[in-house]
Amino acid sequence: MMNVGDINAAWAAALIDGLAGAGVCRAVISPGSRSTPLALACLRHSGIVSRVLLDERVAAFYALGLARAEEKPVVLVCTSGSAAANWYPAVAEADAARVPLILLTADRPPELQDCGANQTFDQRTLFVPQVRAVHTLPPAEPARDWLAALTARAVSQSLWPLAGPVQINVPFREPLLATDPAPPQSSSLPPLVLQPRLMLPQDSVEILARRVEGRRGVILAGAEHVPAEPLIRLANALNWPIIADPLSGLRFGAHDRKRVMTRGDLFLRGDFPPAEIVLRFGAFPVSKAIGQWQSRAIERIVVSEDSRWPDPGRNAAMMIHADPGLLADSLAAVVTKAVPVEWLDSWYAAEQRSAVAADRLAVPEAALFRAAIAALPEGSLLFVANSMAVRDLDDFSGSSDKRLTVLCNRGLSGIDGNLSTFFGAVASGRFPAALALVGDLTFLHDLSGLAAGQGMSATICLFDNGGGGIFDYLPQTALPEFVPGWLTPQRADFAAATAIWGHRYCPTRPNDVVPALTDALATSGVTVLHLAIDRTGSAARHRAVWAASSSFEETSA
Amino acid sequence: MMNVGDINAAWAAALIDGLAGAGVCRAVISPGSRSTPLALACLRHSGIVSRVLLDERVAAFYALGLARAEEKPVVLVCTSGSAAANWYPAVAEADAARVPLILLTADRPPELQDCGANQTFDQRTLFVPQVRAVHTLPPAEPARDWLAALTARAVSQSLWPLAGPVQINVPFREPLLATDPAPPQSSSLPPLVLQPRLMLPQDSVEILARRVEGRRGVILAGAEHVPAEPLIRLANALNWPIIADPLSGLRFGAHDRKRVMTRGDLFLRGDFPPAEIVLRFGAFPVSKAIGQWQSRAIERIVVSEDSRWPDPGRNAAMMIHADPGLLADSLAAVVTKAVPVEWLDSWYAAEQRSAVAADRLAVPEAALFRAAIAALPEGSLLFVANSMAVRDLDDFSGSSDKRLTVLCNRGLSGIDGNLSTFFGAVASGRFPAALALVGDLTFLHDLSGLAAGQGMSATICLFDNGGGGIFDYLPQTALPEFVPGWLTPQRADFAAATAIWGHRYCPTRPNDVVPALTDALATSGVTVLHLAIDRTGSAARHRAVWAASSSFEETSA
């Protein structure tokens, strides 16, 4: 008969083997004792690449970045007790952003629950309702063939019908280590899982086509990746422009970008005429101006790629649950009337006017963002933090035929875990170069995330505007308590922060940013370019660009 | 009629005023927009001292440390979205360790829930079942008199019948700021709440007295604060020794420490004879050796100070729910038979033998811990991390008539948030000096916690044994994957880590620790004493001390 240690090892090996058989090939592990069988099974599995990271919060955001970049579920392993609670911010982001994660929480057995045992609390409901499912396993048992099907089910739940995190809680009794060096192999294979795409029936497509064709409309490609080619084919059929959020994936790449508007946040602030119809794919846009402008349209049609209801304005006239690419192509195939060309011309003019204004008024961040995009090689990763970084990208990225992957933790738009997410994406090995654009508070909030960059090559552009610059644009700026309560400038030595993990620190003046970036991208290791931004001056120039871009009358004169 | 901004301000002011009226006087705030009315109400309340900390994980552990040191509920404020999820590790510790926290989570209103709105997820069940209660408020309303009673109820729930965290979820609509500079005062006063002590009926006390008197027993004062004087009076009446966990509060102070054993972890590893009865107050002890020894007693009686069931061995013969001080005194009053003196003599001998062995075998940490305790002035704070720090304190602190407050996050014994907790306790202002003893992984896990120490005077003794030294004592040490998977030594520059926030860094050799400590404690600001420990040598000496202390036969010869 097997002893408990051998049963634990075989059980953990069956779990990890089942996950690997269902397509998982990455594990991110934080050290601990109770999790030993799981960690060992990951480290010893030939099909799993493991990374060990001390801080579970860092580990979870790293796994999130990896899963985003690879578009595959990533396994997390931690020990019992508060360890898993440190995963929570990343789990909440994965829930909101629909990123597949498999959360393997080691646990103590039932006899140690609710009786004051060390490092033990109720982990079974920890992540509810942020997880798609919780599989609460019994303590390891000799009969383990069913774990192949369970792990296949868990991986499937992380992908469909709503991608996101899935927890498997795994209690172990002591001893945690096997005496037998080679645990028996699992004999059972996981089932192959075939998942569908959501296809709208043809009569519904026809109803939609009659509703949209010939009207002054716009496709709004929102703040998550949408399929470029089908949306462009649809825009061509309707003769509509596409407002492309910086996270839509439509701004960068070899596809036809003629109709792709990248400056809507600039020119839709004023009296630009409302559309008759806004057809949105993807999440609500980053831009508040675009969000407000589209609410003035006669009607809004929202395409939800799954069962969610992405309508924060609560004013959609139609909610379509369908695969965006399938829907766009089936709609383009049946549209017969295009809108007259004048409609599109007004968009081209506004886009051009905004580009000129941004150049003329020289917002410091604009030049930096353009330089960064120019410096990156084809296929690179461009990671942006929330708050000002993604908004400046929105306003000033423009468009390029260079293919870039733009990532941002936009599910909950948190300040947390941004560096960890970035390094996780870098770890995918899919990008010839990687650049993160982050503010000073975001950088400091994930200080420990810098540890995850050891051994990688990547560049972090740290925009230091001396605190939470975004609050300069909010009414809180007028409060007497503004500086200590909202701006919260941190007295921190960024050179020291960078040095902890042996990364390279380059204080960089705006005028030197192009050579500094080029140099950093060509150098192995992690480089932090520290750019001091004049916060007040920057805010004034942002406002000037918005004012110059947004007056429809002025520039059509 | 009031506008929405004014209603928000008055609502938040009523909440904070109600909490202050119920005894809260501290708030820890992380910056955000949706939380503006709450943050402003805290910052403007004359009865609340506020601290703003960027990282919500740091903020929550800081609040935990403050609440531990002040023994009063502390308010946390954060914005909507993933912010509150960063509180989770500290909330889980507060739940396990019964630390009162009031969690004020700002939220978006119902119309922005479940519809893809930014920074919005389901916060209402986030902390269930780790919180005592969740109060889900409606969006701010003009009628707010009832908030005085609600906040009194929330504070009461954080203290009784089981102390711990309580959440109040507070949605706000925009605009978030008031136009009226002086919001109307609340007219209603919170009720005064009177809470009971748990008193065992006299007939139950008599039953207990007959069960314990005259038998060879021991009082086990476990890993949380227990009332010294009543326990000593009871030990005197029974003529029993007291095994004092380092977190029991019994090792340091002017009380009669004659019966207080501080080296049980050393001498109870071997063939020390089992007791007939173990009467435990407080949580299960830190020491595994003590835990195993007491399981060999004929019977165990556990005193739970509330409704919990602190019996991880599942082998208690009696579970008594009663106030420890009341119970000890009422029992001492009716005990008539004491155990013969030989029983106690065998304990004195073992304690003495262990002290000699520890001195003779010169475990490096032993001298350091003794020096640290000697250097601290009366009334100081001694914070210890989990893992090796609290175990070395257990083995080597000895006992002193100097009053010290020993704190440790022993609820879930996490590696997380230790520096933040320490600085939170320091912020109470109750201690003339403060010293934290932490290992290298614990230090790095809470790197951002160093930010919280700005402006304080405190000393951190960083025991750097090059990774997770505790694993040297576990079977994982034999694995080929031991170093990358469990020991996980970090290539980190601790001088740089200390420099980020302007703290002082002192690399210290063991021989220089006494002057270095004395100097650090006398200097304002935060000092990090970095002590390199020879991990392998230290483990060997620990083992030698345990061996020399634990043979009962050898030394009674």
From TrEMBL, chains A, B:
Any Pfam family: TPP_enzyme_N
Keyword set, alphabetical order: Magnesium, Manganese, Menaquinone biosynthesis, Metal-binding, Thiamine pyrophosphate, Transferase
GO biological process, one term: menaquinone biosynthetic process
Enzyme Commission number: 2.2.1.9
UniProt domain Menaquinone biosynthesis protein MenD middle: residue ranges: 212-384
Superkingdom of the source species: Bacteria
Cofactor: thiamine diphosphate; Mg(2+); Mn(2+)
Enzyme superclass (EC): transferase
Biochemical pathway: Quinol/quinone metabolism; menaquinone biosynthesis; Quinol/quinone metabolism; 1,4-dihydroxy-2-naphthoate biosynthesis; 1,4-dihydroxy-2-naphthoate from chorismate: step 2/7
Catalyses which reaction(s): isochorismate + 2-oxoglutarate + H(+) = 5-enolpyruvoyl-6-hydroxy-2-succinyl-cyclohex-3-ene-1-carboxylate + CO2
Residues making up the signal peptide according to the UniProt record: none
Residue intervals of the Thiamine pyrophosphate enzyme N-terminal TPP-binding domain: 12-123
GO terms for MF: 2-succinyl-5-enolpyruvyl-6-hydroxy-3-cyclohexene-1-carboxylic-acid synthase activity; magnesium ion binding; manganese ion binding; thiamine pyrophosphate binding
Annotated cofactor note: Binds 1 thiamine pyrophosphate per subunit.
Protein role: Catalyzes the thiamine diphosphate-dependent decarboxylation of 2-oxoglutarate and the subsequent addition of the resulting succinic semialdehyde-thiamine pyrophosphate anion to isochorismate to yield 2-succinyl-5-enolpyruvyl-6-hydroxy-3-cyclohexene-1-carboxylate (SEPHCHC).
Record-linked PANTHER family: 2-SUCCINYL-5-ENOLPYRUVYL-6-HYDROXY-3-CYCLOHEXENE-1-CARBOXYLATE SYNTHASE, PROTEIN PHYLLO, CHLOROPLASTIC
Subunit structure: Homodimer.
Protein family according to the UniProt entry: Belongs to the TPP enzyme family. MenD subfamily.
This protein's name: 2-succinyl-5-enolpyruvyl-6-hydroxy-3-cyclohexene-1-carboxylate synthase
The organism of origin for this protein: Magnetospirillum molischianum DSM 120
